[in-house]
């Protein structure tokens, strides 16, 4: 009798993304998991198949990352994954699909909501979530002018009186530096230590920039602003490239800096935490589908930082 044989769609997706992007790091970014997570899925796939599917040499790879067996397997894996998706659609096609529209900041969409939406779709195949990524100041305007938008997920600096805020969790701030930066090995870091450092800040008008500049002002320090960026992912990549240092809010999971060549340090001075939550129109009752997803978001908010 043949030994039990089990493949998961996560393993198949990992192989496809590695082949598509050419590296475990890029595949991890596409799947919104860690590089080690991609590696674990591929190792599990190899154990099931009894063959090596990707080359494990460290450093810069030249040529195809897949082995000969991996390349031969790829078209079959693609068809299997498409077939699995078709089975799910077949089971749910008779159900009327409900839609939920929401707007979110880039940070929360990238590091929280994409994974939350994926899990929600697995639990509620009859409800589809449409996510629009906007600047925080634009989310409020969209809620007040677009009735199709159910709610927003953001960290507002000043909230419109026509909207209510429901707290989900708070994020503290940390200093990130390149790995070999002198500050990476020093003791407790003060904002004064950053006065002569090239600082990478969020764009003007963002909540994140307001919090950081407020802390510098309270410490009596004038920072040397070297560059500005619109997203946390871009800030982290710029720091990893050695373009400067930055103060960023980090989730306890470590997903924001995972796989990046940066060092995380705590700051002595207090930078006001980022309070992230739900923005809703005052006095409005959400529909059943929107309320179900809102409840799911509250349930999935980072437990370590959730409001009590």
Describe the structure.
This protein has 308 residues and is α/β, with parallel strands linked by helices. The chain folds into three domains: 84 residues, Arc Repressor Mutant, subunit A, CATH 1.10.10.10; 104 residues, Periplasmic binding protein-like II (D-Maltodextrin-Binding Protein, domain 2); 100 residues, D-Maltodextrin-Binding Protein, domain 2. The protein is 40% helix and 19% strand. It has a five-stranded mixed β-sheet with strand order 2-1-3-10-4, with helices on both faces. The chain has a three-stranded antiparallel β-sheet with strand order 8-5-9, with helices on one face. The relative contact order is 0.14.
Shape: flat
Q: CATH fold name of the largest domain, please?
A: D-Maltodextrin-Binding Protein, domain 2
Just give the CATH class of the largest domain.
Alpha Beta
- What is the end-to-end distance? 55 Å
Name the poorly predicted regions.
304-308
Radius of gyration over C-alpha positions, nearest whole angstrom: 22 Å
Order of helices and strands: HHHHEHEHEEEEHEHEEEH
Could you give the count of β-strands? 10
CATH-derived architecture of the largest domain: 3-Layer(aba) Sandwich
Rounded mean pLDDT is: 86
Tally of domains: 3
How would you sum up the major sheet? 5 strands, mixed
Number of helices: 9
What share of residues is helical? Answer: 40-55%
Strand order of the largest sheet: 2-1-3-10-4
CATH superfamily of the largest domain: Periplasmic binding protein-like II
Structural class by SSE content? alpha/beta
Query: What amount of the residues lies in strands?
Result: 15-25%
